[in-house]
Amino acid sequence: MQAMWPWRHVLITGASSGIGRALAEALAAPGVTLHLGGRDAGRLAAVAAACAARGATVCQQVAEVRDAAAMAAWIGGAGPLDLVFANAGIGAGTGSGFESAADARAVFETNVTGVLNTVIPAVAAMAAQPPGPDGVRGRVAVVASVAAFIATPGAPAYAAGKAAVQRWAEALDATERRRGIRLHSICPGYIRTPLTARNRFPMPLLMEPEEAARRTLRGLAAGRIRVVFPWPIYALARLVGALPPAWRAALMRGFPGKD
Ligand SMILES: NC(=O)c1ccc[n+]([C@@H]2O[C@H](COP(=O)([O-])OP(=O)(O)OC[C@H]3O[C@@H](n4cnc5c(N)ncnc54)[C@H](OP(=O)(O)O)[C@@H]3O)[C@@H](O)[C@H]2O)c1
């Protein structure tokens, strides 16, 4: 099987499930080395086996994204890296009435600090490697969300954390591209994964993780700074997000919270 995508050395956090798993399997091919991270060693091993069966060389790492030193050691020691996904993330919200302090802290620690702990060593490693034929030393894709564009009352820390990493990635791209490193924000709508399986509200245009992975890789191959899909959900988020805050709050008051 021939590799469909141009990247040969790829590192993915949160590869043991959902979108990370689908990205790993979509990229797996002979000649491709995948560095796959996750916390659950059993599920990580199953994804690694599926990728190896497609011909990829796979290095598994039980990796806690909140541990800055461990992440720096893993990413710094991985060897050449064409593409890194800061994908690991968790969800929480006001499903039980309020967002607990513990949930809010856990979401920021994983979805924001965990992204920093991935992106910072990835950029450092890429800065030290030679550029490819297209002048790019490496690409870092931060998996944010369409939730980045709207202050969702049902998931306060999640929406705020996604806004932070989406903006950070896109702003950083402007300066890092001068030294040949590209950053991208990936902003999916609802994807069918264990993260959304707990949602007890309708999820319009729910997409399979395999389709999300295809759209993500197509967007990265086209060099898009922001890869966002599906467009009707994005358009709705931008529209509601642009309303005056009091109107938006009134419109969304009755919406159910995320568990
Ligand atoms: N599903 C959606 O609708 C959707 C939409 C937009 C954006 N996203 C984002 O996409 C990313 C992946 O989500 P998903 O839907 O694929 O969820 P998922 O199936 O629950 O997978 C989450 C992944 O993140 C890993 N992870 C969580 N906390 C971690 C930690 N502290 N250290 C290391 N790894 C950790 C998990 O590892 P273990 O399972 O091994 O613990 C798992 O591999 C997240 O950033 C999420 O916010 C999802």
Question: How would you concisely characterize the structure shown here?
Answer:
This protein is α/β, with parallel strands linked by helices.
> What is the beta-strand fraction?
5-15%
Tell me the Rg in angstroms.
Answer: 18 Å
Reading side by side through the largest sheet, how are the strands ordered? 3-2-1-4-5-6-7
Give the overall shape, derived from the CA principal axes.
globular
Average pLDDT, rounded to a whole number, is: 95
Order of helices and strands: EHEHEHEHEHEHHEHH
- Which stretches are low in confidence, meaning pLDDT under 50 for 5 or more residues running? none
Name of the CATH class: Alpha Beta
Bound molecules: NADP nicotinamide-adenine-dinucleotide phosphate
CATH architecture: 3-Layer(aba) Sandwich
Q: Tell me the helix content.
A: 40-55%
Query: Could you state the CATH homologous superfamily?
Result: NAD(P)-binding Rossmann-like Domain
CATH topology category name? Rossmann fold
Distance from N terminus to C terminus (CA atoms, Å) equals 41 Å
